[in-house]
Amino acid sequence: MYSSYGSSTNFVPGECNSGVCFNGGQCRGGYSQSCSCPPGFQGPRCQYDVNECGINNGGCERECCNSIGSFKCKCPQGFELAADGRRCTDIDECRDHNGGCQHKCLNTDGGFSCECPKGQRLHADGRTCIDTEPLNGYTRVNSSSLEAVVSFKCLLMTY
Ligand SMILES: [Ca+2]
């Protein structure tokens, strides 16, 4: 007895034995028992994933992540995927709540920074402004950029 593969409910079996085509492939029937594969799958039985990222980086501007039967473009931190799903555009962090900056927020390509008025400098938190003159008994806090370098990992699905 044959078992039916695949979870597609609109699977229309041709004149093939059931279970010939995988991943939603449609059986063409006949002697060849070959399959018409949906986008993202290939092979005589649609059993292989298409690595869309292998061709022209999947059309992605930055990172392309292949997955089983599909793929996705991804953007590094500070960028978001554009409406076309391919390009990466800068996120204007200053748009919301002044980027968390106490004084001035400066949007940059892929990041942002806070600025303080004259006589003040940026605290180590990268957002708060503190007086330039150090208080007695306190050492200056080394102010550094808040820009956290987070390595962007592409989660690759394997099987
Ligand atoms: Ca930005």
Automatic annotation (TrEMBL):
Ranges of residues in domain EGF-like: 12-47, 90-130
Keyword Disulfide bond: yes
Cysteine disulfide links: C37-C46
SUPFAM superfamilies: Growth factor receptor domain
Keywords: Calcium, Disulfide bond, EGF-like domain, Extracellular matrix, Glycoprotein, Repeat, Secreted, Signal
Main location per the UniProt record: secreted
Matches recorded under InterPro entries: cEGF, EGF, EGF-like_Ca-bd_dom, EGF-type_Asp/Asn_hydroxyl_site, EGF_Ca-bd_CS, Growth_fac_rcpt_cys_sf, Nephronectin_domain
Stored Pfam families: cEGF (PF12662), FXa_inhibition (PF14670)
Protein's UniProt name: EGF-like domain-containing protein
Species per Swiss-Prot/TrEMBL record: Lottia gigantea (Giant owl limpet)
